[in-house]
Amino acid sequence: MLGAAEEARRHLGENPDPALAAELEQVRQAAQRGAGLVRQLLAYARQQVLEPRLVPLNTAVSEMARMLRPLLGRAIALELELDSPGRLVRIDPSQLDRVLMNTAMNARQAMPEGGRLTLATSRALLLQPEPAMPEPIPAGRWTVLEVRDTGHGIPPEILPRIFEPFFTSRPQQGGTGMGLATVHGIVRQSGGYIAVESRPGQGTRIRILLPRTEAPAAGPPSPPAASLPTDRAQAEPAPAEAPMAAPAGGGPLLLVEDEAPLRRLAERTLRRAGWPVLAAEDAEAALALAAESPPALLVSDVMMLGAMDGPALARALRARNPRLPVLLVSGYAPSVVEEGLSDQGLRFLAKPYTAAELTAAVADLADVAGASCGTPQS
Prior knowledge:
Number of strands: 12
Largest sheet: 5 strands, mixed
Helix content: 25-40%
Number of helices: 10
Structural class: alpha/beta
Strand order of the largest sheet: 2-4-5-7-6
Strand content: 15-25%
Low-confidence stretches: 217-249, 334-342, 371-378
Shape: globular
């Protein structure tokens, strides 16, 4: 839907009919909202692609606090209680921001007349497992992120269900029931745990325990993301893709996608960007094409019909050309993809993607892999 909306908008030209352009934008935004919901489900199911790095927790919390203050409103006071500086956690910075945003917005809903929201960091040493809701916390050394509010609290009959996907106690306010489910999925996929305590009329306390990480022996820690992550549903339309140079004499780009509409859209996008493209619907057809014309770069879906998936196809082609750059595309993140992300010649692109994101990913991969550039085909 997103690709078709982009193509239709492109055909309207530089001065489209305003009414038709507005209708296409409605289609695009509706598809983006659907994509956002799927991403939340993937987070709940712990099947999203993460890019963890060492993040100074206090810095990340302070940065997010500046963004949260205007969203909370004047009636809610935001306070920080930060532990000693230098505490590091290994987590995807954008997902840490999402955890903070979702828990803070949930607290705001619990304080319609105002109150106090506290973000705190600390350390914990558990010598034995700690009983907690929704699940016990194992013994160990933990870095703790705490979100406390002075709201109306959670009724005891609802408390065990707050992490269920699509469960919400605020259907009239438009709640989707995915906020805390998403938080739980992100934290567990990052190796952490959540503990929730709440009493009606006495507020709610959410503790997020992440594995304690010591500073590396050399080099500064990776900085946290400084900007507020937003779902693409709320983002501006991506700009049109920029032309890229196809590799001179290096062979075509091999595109493998078993869904025909997606394959046609991706092929048109890449051809416009200057790449000669060979398109296949499955791994077997791709291998046959590659035998006739060795590819300079592979773009493949991860899950496909047939006996061979995208990673297996990449391994087969790399047996012939070990330096073949590979872009794997998928709507979720099986472990075989995550394990390969450290490979300098392999990249992952999450579905749904825009035309600009596809061409940018291919261009970046070609640059990193050292593909020589020539004149784009007309």
